[in-house]
Design brief:
Layout (H helix, E strand, L loop, with lengths): L10 H10 L1 H10 L11 E6 L7 H15 L3 H7 L4 H17 L4 E5 L9 H21 L5 E5 L8 H18 L6 E5 L5 H17 L9 E5 L2 H4 L7 H8 L4 E6 L1 H7 L12 H14 L5 E3 L12 H17 L5 E3 L4 H29 L9 H17 L4 H8 L3 H8 L1 H8 L1
Parallel strand pairs: 1-2, 1-8, 2-3, 3-4, 4-5, 5-6, 6-7
Helix pairs in contact: 3-5, 4-5, 5-14, 6-7, 10-12, 13-14, 14-15, 15-17, 17-18
Length: 425
């Protein structure tokens, strides 16, 4: 019998290869950590900053429920969204609970387009009031899990004003006590990498001034300009952002109307599903893949009010479903009456996909032959899908245990194995 061959590469050869790839190893470790497994909100609600009160979330929930009841109830909404009857009943019950208990997952007090230019004195006052009221809402337990502000952009005309509002708000929160766990800061209308680097400097200085841990202040970048998708040298600035300020950016948010208008799309055809929107969002997906930075779709300005409620619900529900199918698990809502269709479409997406995903996940975990042979990457996607459903309230942990045979800790480890390996090391 012939002897087994021995390796030909020496220890020196292997060390040489390790040396060649050391920079790659550092890049992957630092810049591509993957998703951290924490909850991502399914939406962001925008309200003018001066309209926020600690009861705003509950008020929106009550208005959303009232609108649904005035139009036949949440089960009728399921019918409008063409959901099967059995699915619609399960979704309606969960949406009703959601609108009573947590109607807004992520709230942004807007000092930009939704606020306008009211003069420095008024905006200073409103920024300080916003900080105080957010602190009060967090202390009282009435604040959404994620909350923060959108300030004016870093173009020359509004830069100083935007920075001042950011400073007053963060400083006010810091003086009130510990910052909200779900604090979110949003930088709009970004056109260059330099603007994001300037934001990185601003938040690092605020951390130093207020004795906050380094990296505590992260921020979202709104992708609203074509210059961020394709730069003057033919490169994609948005793809450079995660690496220009590693660990600082929490999410990229697509801005439907500013982006569409910049490309001369007629107002009638500006939409989250226009081809120019799809192209920009696909570039955004590629830019942040593996970085841990989340993505959010934009909004529709067709609001469910007056005689237009049911048509607007159909449109909104379809757009939410479309975003979810394309890997955009978050979007913007602008009115209380959009909450029923947001949650109805989102919950239906997860509940409808749960049985098949759970069955495939069980087969993978138990190494049972089924109709699909899933690889580890697909198993991660299956687990992440189910986990998102649990985190938003569409699916119960007991359902996952019954269908997939796994508890939430194991589900999380399957969805984010790198995170699990790090925590166990």
């Amino acid at each position: 019998m012939a002897a087994s061959p021995k390796p030909s590469l020496s220890a020196g050869d292997l060390a040489n290869i390790d040396g060649q790839l050391a920079a790659t190893d550092r890049l992957l470790e630092r810049n591509y950590p993957g998703d951290d497994g924490s909850r991502q909100p399914v939406h962001t609600v925008y309200v003018p900053a001066d309209r926020f009160t600690p009861s705003l979330a509950a008020d929106w929930g009550a208005q959303a429920l009232a609108t649904a009841e005035a139009h036949g109830g949440l089960e009728r909404l399921g019918w409008l969204l063409e959901q099967p009857l059995s699915l619609s009943a399960a979704v309606a019950s969960r949406v009703a609970d959601k609108l009573r208990q947590e109607p807004i997952e992520d709230l942004r007090l807007d000092f930009e387009d939704g606020y306008g230019d009211r003069g420095d004195e008024a905006e200073d006052s409103d920024a300080c009031t916003a900080a105080r009221q957010v602190a009060e809402a967090v202390a009282a337990g009435t604040a959404p899990p994620f909350i923060g502000i959108r300030f004016k952009c870093f173009e020359s005309a509004t830069r100083a004003r935007g920075l001042r509002t950011l400073d007053l708000f963060v400083s006010g929160l810091a003086e009130a006590g510990e910052l909200p766990q779900g604090l979110v800061l949003t930088l709009p209308k970004v056109t260059t990498v330099a603007q994001v680097q300037a934001m990185g400097y601003a938040v690092s200085r605020l951390e130093e001034i207020h004795s906050l841990p380094a990296g505590r202040l992260r921020f979202e970048v709104q992708v609203e300009t074509p210059q961020l998708i394709l730069g003057p040298d033919g490169s994609s600035p948005v793809a450079q952002l995660p690496h220009a300020v590693p660990g600082r950016i929490s999410a990229l948010h697509y801005g439907t109307y500013d982006y569409s208008a910049s490309l001369q799309i007629a107002a009638e055809h500006q939409s989250m599903e226009h081809p120019v929107a799809d192209f920009a969002k696909e570039v955004m997906q590629l830019a942040v893949a593996g970085t841990g930075i989340r993505l959010s779709d934009g909004s529709t300005n067709i609001i469910p009010v007056g005689a237009n409620v049911e048509n607007a619900w159909r449109l909104h529900g379809r757009l939410v479903q479309r975003s979810l199918e394309r890997g955009y698990y978050q979007g913007w809502d602008l009115h209380p009456a959009q909450l029923p269709s947001r949650f109805a479409a989102t919950y239906a997406f997860y509940r409808q996909g749960l049985p098949a995903a759970a069955a495939r996940l069980r087969n993978y975990v138990e190494q049972t032959e089924g109709g699909v042979m899933d690889e580890p990457a697909t198993a991660r996607a299956l687990a992440a899908f189910v986990l998102r459903g649990v985190q938003c309230g569409a699916v119960g942990a007991h359902e996952v245990q019954a269908l997939a045979g796994v508890g939430i800790p194991q589900l999380t480890a399957l969805a984010h194995p790198r995170l699990a390996a790090t925590s166990n090391s």
